[in-house]
Known about the structure:
Elements: E1 3-5, E2 12-14, E3 16-19, H1 28-31, H2 38-50, E4 55-57, H3 66-74, E5 83-88, H4 103-117, E6 122-127, H5 136-149, E7 152-158, H6 162-174, E8 180-186, H7 198-205, E9 208-212, H8 239-244, H9 250-267, H10 271-280, E10 285-290, H11 295-302, H12 311-321, H13 329-333
Parallel strand pairs: 3-4, 3-10, 4-5, 5-6, 6-7, 7-8, 8-9, 9-10
Antiparallel strand pairs: 1-2
Amino acid sequence: xxxxxxxxxxxxxxxxxxxxxxxxxxxxxxxxxxxxxxxxxxxxxxxxxxxxxxxxxxxxxxxxxxxxxxxxxxxxxxxxxxxxxxxxxxxxxxxxxxxxxxxxxxxxxxxxxxxxxxxxxxxxxxxxxxxxxxxxxxxxxxxxxxxxxxxxxxxxxxxxxxxxxxxxxxxxxxxxxxxxxxxxxxxxxxxxxxxxxxxxxxxxxxxxxxxxxxxxxxxxxxxxxxxxxxxxxxxxxxxxxxxxxxxxxxxxxxxxxxxxxxxxxxxxxxxxxxxxxxxxxxxxxxxxxxxxxxxxxxxxxxxxxxxxxxxxxxxxxxxxxxxxxxxxxxxxxxxxxxxxxx
Length: 342
């Protein structure tokens, strides 16, 4: 397993992390991901640790807290061997203060996550979304207090716009507060918007990408083929889950899949392995969150490391997955003096 620094911090993380969205299967949405119980989750953690993958990502809302509880049981007795990341901000409860990134909600959410996880600290605590109704200073001061208390080691954000993240970083720097070292963001061969602004920001500010849904919301697993119906064993079969993720035009998807198939024929690797390996060669990527319902899926994803696509293969995938950029990015790219991170 390769380890990289998490952004500009001193923390080293494995290039592959394990996402616990498959733990629990509670609620209509997470039924589409998986329903691993404690025994199965423990087996998955065993496989990860054997491969050197020691970082596990969760969130308070995953299966209404059940995913954190199951993860806590699965790592019981070996907490010092693993890194735990989790998230807060989304609604968790019926009250008016049971949502957002206010001081009230974050401190309560952190305490509740610690209890469910059965630990005294969280290695990476992330804001699951940008809360436009809570002042940034309130959020960042609350997070800094959690870091100073020892309950949180590092902080990160998720799904922020460029200006959301930059304003937060500027406030932290001005007031000498803990700063976001990670941005958990959607990025895949069929979802490259991250490259337009968030990647250059990450390079400039030392913010590492923690990539979620690297297989394009289950579309790059090798199960989807042109002219064939969606198979039953995928989250895309669940209309609630499928509709909540990033949407991808069908022709564009299969254009990329065709290119991956060509590279697969050259390398002998699987579709997921190629999609993950491509991401591992992109700037700012610190770790990629893989999710797996079965041991077979997990071992296949672990096969994405230990080798690299050739420059020609990367170029082929780049060309197949390139899409027109929105303004002002297409205009900025027209100024040849500006560097292009990819």
